[in-house]
Amino acid sequence: MFWQMLKGALVRQSRKMFMVAITIALGVSLTTAMLNVMLDVGDKVNRELKAYGANITVTPRAASVLRDIYGLESGPGGAGQYLQEADVGKLKTIFWANNIVGFAPSLETKAIAGTGDVTVVGTWFNRQLELPTGEVVETGIKELKSWWTVEGNWVSDTDINSAMVGSTLAHKLGIHTGDTVELVLPGDSRREKVTVQGLFNSGGPEDEQIFVTLPFLQKALNLEGKVGKIEVSAITTPENDLARKAAHDPQSLSLKDWETWYCTAYVSSIAYQIEEAVSGSRAKPVRQVAESEGTILQKTQLLMLLITVLSLAGSALGISNLLTANMMERSREFGLLKALGATDGDVLLLTLTEIILTGLAGGVAGYFLGLGFAQIIGQNVFGSAVAINMMVIPWVILSVILITLVGSLPAIRMLLSLRPAAVLHGR
Amino acid sequence: MSLLELQNVSMIYGNVKALQEIDLTVQQGEWLALMGPSGSGKTTLMNIIGCMDKASSGSIVLDGIDFSDVTAGNLTMLRREKIGLVFQQFHLIPYLTAVENIMVAQYYHSMPDEQEALAALERVGLKERARHLPSQLSGGEQQRVCIARALINYPMLILADEPTGNLDEANAKIVLEFFQQLHREGHTIIMVTHDPRVAELAERCIILEHGRIADRMDRRIVCREEEVS
Amino acid sequence: MAGDKKMTKYSMYTKMIWHALLRRRSRMLIALMAVAIGATVVSGLVTIYYDVPRQMGREFRSYGANLLLTPAGDQQIISESLVSNATSLLQADKLIGIAPYLYDRVKVNEQPLQVAGTRFQSVKKVSPYWQIRGNWPEDQSEDIVIGADIAERLKIEPGQQVTLTVAGNDTEKKVKVAGIVRTGGPEEEFVFLDLSLLQQMLHKEGVVSIAQVSITANEAELTALTQKIGQQVPGVAPRLVKQVTQSEQTVLGKLQALVYLVTIVVLLLTLICVATTMMAVVTERRKEIGLKKALGAENRSIILEFLGEGLALGALGGLMGTILGFFFAQAVSVNVFGRIISFQPLIALLALVVSIVVTGLACLIPVKIATDVEPAIVLRGE
Lengths: 427, 229, 382
Prior knowledge:
The structure holds 3 protein chains of 3 kinds. By secondary structure, chain A is α+β, with helices and mostly antiparallel strands. Helix content of chain A is 50%, strand content 19%.
């Protein structure tokens, strides 16, 4: 009899319960989407912030090469002032290898071009590097310096004798794309020619420099296999007190704290591990980038959290409310059931079963719908898929239970106190 | 001239013939009882006479107006002007007081007039309950408010669908007494009932069966003896 | 007398709506809650959406200067008065700071080094990422700040005294190193001292090499500013720091797109929730509608009555929601950005209007359906 009543109740009220199920589905999809996005937004924004370029600079531990503003510096000093180019690949072997998004080694010198001095930088533009693991990565300043605008073409790393010239310098010396520039290099005053592939505008000091391929400059300066600096762009976790303490002096931490610090992607931790991998190096966070991205990440995550809380609270309340309205609308039907002899327990069971079934149907449909919404948001905003977080599921289940319970409570209380006669006679 | 004249009226819903070729004449001041088993079509007939439904075929003339061929909007107007309705389930608006419920009927007709509404309540003996909500009134009192409401716009015809169906003995008596008074005052009443004792109070009695008029009797003759459920 | 007629009809109309709302407390509360919740969420999110670029934009200033004022043409230096002419064209409330720099060479303890004269108070504002071990120099003092690389090489600690010699001038000056700056960038190779002091020592009073400006503005606004400055102050060549401005544009754009999408999704859900709740509440009154029709009401009258209720609910719920939503947006702004937002009358109006419209429509649909049904069916049936 119970099942017949249930079936009857469900069928007759199917349209109304369908509306409720749809609203629950939408609420659940919102919850799922928001939670997944919220948990992933930190990572996504972090990747976007990589547009600012390198946040770690790796230099030789020994006295760094002095740069001079005027005049030619006497040639690069002896050994100990350079890093090994072979060590560069080791960046992708550290514990945080996957957080290293891009890197570019470089070598810098003063040279004479035309009538005046220029700074010449040899580096990787977009080099294919084969790692000891067999993996191939593509990296270089093309990725690191995303804000450069190029007139002409980027240099191809295999085209050894090509160069790119900063716009300010090009304007000063009257250099155009396709021109050949002669450079007089320090040391034994060798003369080398490079072909200009393109002019770039960086909006910074690089606009006054010439960029050439690393092998070219290494050969010209007799510094094969050596680099002066490596710029690294890594995805990091915002700094907290532990990280700052560690950055100051890693040895001052307790063993437990040290492990926590080492195993969290703080910029200081990654820098420390780079120093372990690249021999004779000093890895320093570029504070201008590292500090700011930490701040912005934290604020973005907090903002998203609060927005999520508002939206979820709103939708939860709204759906509870709807359930109550729906229950009240059906008071007459329940009065009828009671008049037919159903006990309070029967009516309660019937109602709860209906609610549970509706909640279940709406919840499951909503979960998958929500995953879809999350992907739409991820693709449209960040151009990548949002990571599906399994932790979201228990929260969704909890919220559905909470919503349906809270929504039904006032209504159930009311209909348990109904007098069948009153309801039937429209009072 | 008769007040209401139905000629060859039929009502067909899909395959169901709710009413078949009904001929009926009602004179001004008559009290007509409509009886018949459930499903016989009495409520359908009432709805047609009460301008709440349109017949599939046939002609219906009330007060000289043929409304078998009238638009829905005009039906509403006719209903408003000429008919007073009393239902078994005394439909009152639950959030308005007794007097306000009557004023609603005035509102849709012409204009609300509190004094007139209070006077109407007084006529049914409910002046002191004027400011009470339906939930605060007994069944009988609610039905009396409905009667007052039915009368407020001076209808030509009062249609009552089992007005005592939901009332206990005592309240039914009061309501019926009131209908008798209305009859004495010259109102035309058509009342659906299954209770022969109620039908007894009427002047004339019509029995419907399967959509047709099974028998038309003058009250003294058969309605007393008919056992209809 | 026609005027009287209208008045009484109108007052009856109002009375019916009033009682419908007040004497059905539980139903009305449910409907009101639905509208209020919806309006809160909508007004809160929309306020946040409009506020995010401004607030976040200010956060991005922690990346440092986004505008440089350099000497025009082939000049190496510009006068400070020209710089202030240029900066007077900037909006004061959006300006974070202006840090002037004068570059030259010095010898510290006989070591040749690069020096920059600047105003430390301005540097704190423009480049908040400087980390000072020790102290910032006090105003009016002759204390200097040296870069971490130099400190390490020359083994100098904060508080130590060093000898400062300026090129072309043989007089030595003993100054105290107040602090050591660590940034992981080129600053670590510089010596910093107070601008006026350096100008004096170099006999280059009133000039600077460059001025770094940090101002809250998007790329378009900055480009317009550079054009304005370039036209009105010919001696100054303004340049955008593309590394900072372009990246800010990208990231900020994505954040706003994110909040926008989320707002849309939440808006849709809220609308549907409000609509379905209103529909449930109104559908319950089918019998009442049937009754009114039986009493001779025109469809139009009934629709107008329900519309009146819907509008009243929408207005009240909308008002409540707008206020609550503003408080929520305020809470977000204070907790995330540490700043308060000003009340936005336009958004409040929008939320109110949307509440009224949505509630009105949500009432109309079930009423329209109900009035299309013959009263007989409604009154007779379940």
